[in-house]
Amino acid sequence: MLSPQAPAPRVLLLEDDPAIARTICYALEREGIAVTHSLLIADARQQWASVAFDALLMDVGLPDGNGLDWCRELRSTGSIAPVLVLSARGEEMDKVLGLELGADDYLSKPFSPRELLARTRALLRRSRQFQPAAQAQPAQALQIDEQGQRILLHSQTMDLTRREYQLLQSLIQSAGRILSRDALLEQIWGLGSESTDRTVDTHIKTLRAKLRERLPGQEVIITHRGLGYSLNQPG
């Protein structure tokens, strides 16, 4: 159970099967997680725009569209809230596609309520661990605003996805040290995730491109072949 002192996390559930939705709502709400249920993407969009949800649990095949298309749209607009995809389509390529479009985790139907709860709570924990604490480092070109969940480059906010933010934050906090792909996978995606080294490399590639656009001629993220990545703080 979550601590009674902490505000209850709010989760949006997008699921068109009422029986599955009832099972999910019961499993989460008995653990202190507030759930808002939508049957259609159209309603989920309205709910998402009006409420600050902590996570999104979404089916893929819905009567009014494909959940992955909305997931991709959310990521393109800068949303960093964690997304767990629930789908009867369990093939490997479907999972890879979902993760590459911005989902944080993938759970194939049928699943047990216990596994769903564990994965949801893991997403919420990882989301919250990047929020409070250390002050930004004004002496550095790259600064972490943990409360605002953003990275500042020369005092200007960088346009990052949630995973890019988490990756860059980890690299900044470990400046001068090499972080292996396995370490980044465990720290950011979690031990239970089905993500692979390729997922880390893909996110590093897009993050590196954004840094190069702002800092032409400077190599901020250094690749150490066979070892991992490190950060070279820009001047």
UniProtKB/TrEMBL annotation:
Source species, domain of life: Bacteria
Q: Where is the Response regulatory domain?
A: 10-124
The keyword Oxidoreductase belongs to this UniProt entry's keyword annotation: no
Please indicate if the UniProt record lists Translocase as a keyword: no
GO BP annotation list: regulation of DNA-templated transcription
Q: Which CDD domains match?
A: REC_OmpR (cd17574), trans_reg_C (cd00383)
Looking at the UniProt record for this protein, which Gene Ontology cellular component terms does it annotate, in alphabetical order? Answer: cytosol; protein-DNA complex
Write down the DNA-binding region ranges: 131-233
4-aspartylphosphate is found on 59
Which parts of the chain are coiled coil? none
Q: Which InterPro entries match?
A: CheY-like_superfamily, OmpR/PhoB-type_DNA-bd, Sig_transdc_resp-reg_C-effctor, Sig_transdc_resp-reg_receiver, WalR-like, WH-like_DNA-bd_sf
Q: Where is the OmpR/PhoB-type domain?
A: 131-233
Q: Which GO terms describe its molecular function?
A: phosphorelay response regulator activity; transcription cis-regulatory region binding
UniProt cross-references to PROSITE patterns, sorted A to Z: OMPR_PHOB (PS51755), RESPONSE_REGULATORY (PS50110)
Q: Which UniProt keywords apply?
A: DNA-binding, Phosphoprotein
PANTHER family (alphabetical): REGULATOR OF RPOS, TRANSCRIPTIONAL REGULATORY PROTEIN CREB
Q: What is this protein called?
A: Winged helix-turn-helix domain-containing protein
Organism annotation: Comamonas suwonensis
